[in-house]
Amino acid sequence: MKAELLLSALFLSLPLACTSPAAGKASTEALVPDTAVQVNRIIDELLANGQAYAKLEELCMIAPHRLSGSAGAELAVEWARQKMLADGLENVRLEPCTVPHWVRGDTEELVFTAPASLAGQSLPLLALGGSVATPVEGLEAEVVVVHNFAELEALGEGAKGKLVLFNRPMQDTLASTFPAYGGAVDQRVGGADQASKAGALASISRTMSTLRDDNPHTGTMHYSGNYAQVPAAAVSTNGADQIEALIDAGESVRLRLKLNCRTEEPVQSFNVVGELVGTEFPDEVIVVGGHLDAWDVGQGAHDDGAGCVQAMEVLRVLKVLDLRPRRTLRCVLFMNEENGTAGGRAYHQDHLGEMQQHVMALESDSGGFTPRGFGGSMNDEAFALFERMVAPLARTGASLAKRGGGGSDIGPMAASKVPLVGFIPDSQRYFDYHHSVTDVIGAVNLRELHLGAAAIAGLVWQVANLDSPLPRDMNTPPAGE
Ligand SMILES: [Zn+2]
Questions:
Q1: Ligand 1 (ion): which residues have CB within 5 A?
Q2: In this predicted model, what pLDDT tens digit does every residue of 157-194 receive, in sequence order?
Q3: Contact, 225 vs 192, CB < 8 A?
Q4: Alpha-carbon torsion 419, 425, 427, 433, what sign?
Q5: 199-237, pLDDT tens digit by residue?
Q6: Distance between CA atoms of 20 and 34, rounded to whole angstroms?
Q7: For this structure, is 338 an active site residue?
Q8: Nearest 5°: phi and psi at 373?
Q9: Phi/psi class of residue 371: alpha, beta or left (left: φ > 0; alpha: ψ in -120 to 50)?
């Protein structure tokens, strides 16, 4: 076993001895001594003894519903703080942020009143986060179907007094589901505003999923303030297609929508923070995080319990292996990603004074699936180093180093030129579960989750041990100097 390890270490470090530190061309040399050996130790430890899944099971049991402002969110905060303390992290603390408090209520109904053959039948429905309620008796009206805002506008007065159904599917031909989501989600986020502008009574949007099933998914929506606030809800992909098919067949479809959701006063909540203080450059910080809040349906297992427990595992595994980093690793579990990003904004604001010392921020918020790689938003010089640090992680499946990436919570740090990285797992099943009752622990595979934690830990360990911080624009001398 020992000889094998030594041999593989020799073999893997051979290129270091044989090639000169080539300038320019993409080099595959390790940037940190012993990378192959230590990254493999990290991966082995997390695959054999990882605790991400056990942590996630606990979080999903203790605080399954943890939308910002709710009692569940506060349970999650306290759970995370206790776990960080139990893991032996340093400087464990809560950092305050003020979050919105939206409450779903107990009435969500969408019932056919026409055609007569379907009268009284209901369709599964979820109010969108932030929506106002309907009147107590509900809103009953004819439905018009559109696929985008331009079609709605082209209807002119045609949507007045009606319910608007936005039914543009996520594009099936895109191999990654994230751009497909990005290309369709305007209907959910902005549908109510556009419906109101057209004189409609409410917005009903197609669920953002690549599946065709009866499961509605919720998510955030936004009122611009320019139009009267009308209710907004999501129907399943099958439900949306059923309504459209009826209308296409010449039926006049009428529905009654009832919601009693409400928005209460903002609440103080917290980002949960824990550290491993660096040995040589303690003031230089690498953030690794996910978001602790989740929608109030399902258990937020993939979104984003998975990212939280992976981030926690990065620090724990280095501690267990006694791989204390040269720079400080800071695990930040952000609050309120789903409906406001107050935690991410508060973190940036409250740490403005040390943004220059933020060497990198990484977020895992794309589900606990098999790793594919990482996306990096940074300058060319930093990206060349980033590619070299992703290369040794191939064993986990994380071999892709893609340009562009980050996360909603770390996004505000872009304004301070902090190099940002997003973890990229396989995306095919993410939107099967996203923001719905099916996003539960049973949808997460232990080994996939642990491979992700291993990939992230392997990357973060290298960044934490570089001789110099990742180059960033504000530190890069102008060309020619
Ligand atoms: Zn998320």
A1: 303-304, 365
A2: 999 999 999 999 999 999 999 999 999 999 999 999 99
A3: no
A4: negative
A5: 999 999 999 999 999 999 999 999 999 999 999 999 999
A6: 18
A7: no
A8: 160, -150
A9: beta
